[in-house]
């Protein structure tokens, strides 16, 4: 059986993500449970990936190796996009549009997240 914590640290290193931070992130997301599921969000698996938003992971969210590899690469992408691990973590959990801001279909501009913990959603 694979040591999933060790694998998470390795996946993080391969993607230039701080290994301890990534391990703590996955522990917070699922407690390293490959069968974890959140009915409210639809998040599934060890990395709590929502297949609706990550269609390449559809049918693979309960594969802990595939999920950890995907999550580490996604965190690296978020870091490159936002320039801080704080914002990368927020984007992973809340969505990159909510962190970076967006314009609605009706033309309303939603400002980027202000970076304050108290303005994040409760989850």
Explain how this protein is built.
The protein is mainly α. The chain is 46% helix and 3% strand. The protein contains five helices and two strands; from the N terminus they run αααααββ. It has helices at 4-14, 19-30, 64-82, 85-94, 96-100, and strands at residues 102-103, 109-110. Strands 1-2 form a two-stranded antiparallel ribbon.
Report a brief summary of the structure.
The chain is mainly alpha-helical. The protein has helices spanning 4-14, 19-30, 64-82, 85-94, 96-100; strands at 102-103, 109-110. The chain starts with a helix and ends in a 13-residue tail after the last strand.
Fill in the keyword field for this structure.
mainly alpha; 123 residues
| Estimated structural class | mainly alpha
Count of DSSP strands? 2
Along the chain, the helix and strand elements come as HHHHHEE
- Spatial order of the strands in the main sheet? 1-2
Which bin fits the share of residues in helices? Answer: 40-55%
Provide the low-confidence segments as ranges: none
């Amino acid at each position: 059986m694979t040591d999933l914590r060790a694998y998470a640290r390795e996946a993080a290193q391969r993607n230039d993500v701080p290994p301890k931070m990534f391990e703590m992130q996955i522990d917070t997301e699922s407690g390293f449970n490959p069968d974890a599921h959140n009915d409210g969000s639809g998040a599934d698996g060890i990395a709590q990936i929502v297949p609706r938003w990550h269609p390449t992971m559809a049918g693979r969210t309960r594969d802990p190796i595939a999920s950890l590899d995907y999550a580490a690469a996604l965190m690296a992408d978020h870091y490159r996009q936002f320039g801080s691990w704080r914002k990368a973590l927020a984007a992973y959990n809340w969505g990159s549009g909510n962190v970076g801001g967006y314009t609605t279909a009706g033309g309303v501009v939603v400002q980027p997240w202000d970076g304050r913990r108290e303005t994040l959603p409760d989850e």
